[in-house]
Amino acid sequence: METSTIPKIHGKAKDFMPINGTDYIELYVGNSKQAAHYYKTAFGFQSFAYAGLRTGLKDRESYVVIQDKIRLILTSPLKSGTEIGQHIDKHGDGVKVVALWVDDATYAYDTAISKGAKSYMEPETEEDENGKVVRAGIYAYGETVHVFVERKDYHGTFLPGYIQWETPDYNPAPTGLKYVDHMVGNVGWNRMNHWVEFYEKVMGFVNILSFDDNDISTEYTALMSKVMSNGNGRIKFPINEPAEGKKKSQVEEYLDFYEGEGVQHIAVATDDIIKTVKDLRSRGVEFLRVPSTYYDAVTDRVGKIDEDIAPLKELGILVDRDDEGYLLQIFTKPVEPRPTMFFEIIQRKGAQSFGKGNFKALFEAIEREQELRGTLH
User: Fold this and answer.
1) Would the pTM count as exceeding 0.90?
2) How many Å apart are CA 89 and CA 61, to the nearest integer?
3) Domains in the chain, ordered, with CATH?
4) Which residues, in sequence order, are CB contacts of 331 under 8 Å at separation 6+?
């Protein structure tokens, strides 16, 4: 069982940059219209907002989809030679912006810059008939950016410049996804501690958990990870780097195909993982599978849980426990042509940790996929 002292550690965060939660995640994608259809059809997101030619933009088009507190912006270029297009050409579809909801975007930006952050966008006030929003941004690992969003004086649907997007004839039901639990970044060799220090110094985060290559390894591959969190625990960023192994790890594979550092996966929470995963599978979402023998010793390892083992085994849902309780989790296969970004579905039943007891089984499942792709060598 994993020992969790996370609630105590949160109190050690300097937290000089209060963050209320994840505001939105923006992905640069090759075809935003089709990507929006995919996230609606496969994951149960709902049509929400739009910006593009119909709102006066000439260079890009964005569709916003929503499910409970999760907002995704899917953005594509409308011309060649754009910064967005160059990002897609290099990285494939992936996360560009992790936007953070704050009370004072100018303060957050000025504080980050004063502590060494590189500017992405200076504070800008955007207004329409529904009020104003202030946004400012800094660079994080790779070309990933954090945009601080201040919306206390705004009463519109999403952001100025967007209009409501409705699709009355096609709105598949939600699948029970609630909010972003955490978001994992993959960084290069010997870069993990650099980014740990960045989040500590620039944003006042604290390192709440650390895993070395003894914790996260199989016969063939290994990696290291440190989990960074803000003071209230609403923002958690695990940061992975490769470790020496006999063969190429999943982080190395990601770095090769993404051609740099970036967001590896988005973990989204649900209150009923069995129902959510059944719904997602019925819509064509593919998940990693662990051997059925994993379930032979689950109750010995994690003790009594509320769920029956049979549906967990059928669906491939993993279980782990810490001092605070237990969690259930499962990981999709990559949702892009490149073996880069994927999603984690997680249900926490008290546990504050990240499933250390599942690492070996999970990583062996990833290695089987790497073997099929011909990238485990």
Assistant:
1) yes
2) 17
3) 21-164 (3.10.180.10), 175-373 (3.10.180.10)
4) 265, 287, 288, 342, 343, 344, 345, 362
